[in-house]
Every structure is written in structure tokens, then in C-alpha cells.
Amino acid sequence: MINKLKVFVPAHITGFFEIMTNDDPILKGSKGAGITLDKGVITETTVEEGSGKIIIKLNNKKDSLNTISPQAIDILKNTFNLNLNNYDITINHETSLPISAGFGTSAGFALGISYTLPKLLGLNISFNKAGEIAHLTEISKSSGLGDVISEMHGGLVIRLKEGSPMIAKIDKIPITQPTYVITKTLSPLNTKDIIDNPVYQKRINSSGNKLQNILLSNPSIENFIKLSRQFSENAKLINPELHEILEIMDEESIGSSMAMLGNTAFCLSNTPDINIENCITTKINTSGVKYII
Predict the structure, then answer these.
(1) What is the pLDDT at residue 215?
(2) Which site from 38, 45, 132, 188 is most exposed, i.e. has the minimal number of CB atoms within 10 Å?
(3) Residues of the chain with confidence (pLDDT) below 50
(4) What is the third-level CATH fold of 2-172?
(5) Is the pTM of this model over 0.70?
(6) Are 49 and 88 in contact (CB under 8 A)?
């Protein structure tokens, strides 16, 4: 018996957010808004008869730094009382995006597993329940708060209510024409260092909780990027080098901001051209999670 399944999960850049704490991980999360990208994480999972061996790779190489994928498997095992001792499982995540740079790759890893492994093991699991497994993985590792549900649905997502996808609520701003997303990453940034830091929490929440209603009153791409920049300035997360890049982007695009949370500048544009070297250019994704058949 050999079963194989492959899924694409779009990357996600948060523009602004508000941390919603709760002792129950099902209820914990964030409100805010962000965009998904046509680039992301492709996960291929293979299950065959074996002796309980689990191999996890990133771009076809073993990656000991990836703690998200093993945690997703553990949460699946505990949730469904699974015994994997009779299987050999191989999981390979593929991405061309930098890790720990504000692209939601950890959520992509978790969703890649929660949308492939249960199906291969013969479990009947709903779309939102699979998302809940990924949400619990992110919360347990403090690697993200709102990427999961946004990546599930795609587009320009406004997160109206926090928590597991089983209970969270979202809205979307319609994307009516191709919009380019141009990004420039300077270095990694550990999400946990920000969202678990009381000083940053206070700055983030004092700014983030006001912006959602402003966006809802004028739900446009232009307003989204404007509010995102306002948020990143108020949260005092932009370093001088990143600020220089944003100023260049401002002159050549609809608007620019900092990816939450990563040392990454991004802008929205009607064209793929920018006078900055070594950028990643993609478009806003509108499909969300998609199986590759």
C-alpha cells in the first residue's frame, strides 16, 4: 500500500493585526487583515506500510529546525487517537520563499500536513477541522496567530473573529484585477519574540484594534496598504534599512508596508517592475488551499 497526496497552500502577509489572548488555544488568535500570494508551500505526503518511521523534509532535504511539522503530526495523533506504528510517512515541503520572514510558511507547513495526512490515513475530516489542527499547531509554537484561516481561503482576508477556523469569522475584499505583490526580505525575524513580548503586544493592540473598522468602512486594496503602513509605523517595528526600501517602493507602487511579522518590505503594484534588486514578485492569490491532482 502506497498512498500519496499533494496540496498547495498560499503564503500570507499580514498587514495589521490585534492579538486576542485566551487560555484556550481554540479561542486564541488574532483579528486583522492580510493578503495571500500565488507563491507558498507545496506539501507532498506519502504513506506506506512500515514500522512507524516519519521523515520530514524541506525542499527535499532534512530540516531539523522545522518543529512545526512534527507538532502538527502530534496534534493529529492526539486529536484522533492515532497509532502510526504500522506506517512509514514521508513529508516534503517545497517553497521558494524565505523562512521566518513574514510569509506564513509555518502555517503552510501545518496546513500541508493537516490537509494530506488524515486523508491518506482514511480519516473523514472537514475543511475547517483540518484547519483547526493547523491553528492549534501554530498557537502551541507561538509561530503565528492568523495565517491559517487566511491561507485556507485566499485573497485579501479581513479576520473579524479570532480562534480556530471552526469558530472564527472572516470577510474578504474582492480582487477585481491582477495585483502584483513585490517583496524584499532583509533577514529572518522570530514571530515568537514579538507576539510573546508584552511591550510589542501593547503597541500592536493599541494600533491594531482601531484599523479594522476603518478598513471595513472603505474596503479597498489602497486603504488596506495605507492602514498596514500606519500600523507598522505605530508598532515601531520598522528598522532604518527597511524604511529606506519602503520609501523607494512608495514611489513606484500603490503603497508599501512591512510584513507582519518579518523583516520584509512589501508593496502592491499594478506592474511587476521595481528599482530594487533581488525582490520576489508574485500576485495576490484568490483560491486558497488547493489540491494538486
Answers:
(1) 97
(2) 188
(3) none
(4) Ribosomal Protein S5; domain 2 (3.30.230)
(5) yes
(6) yes
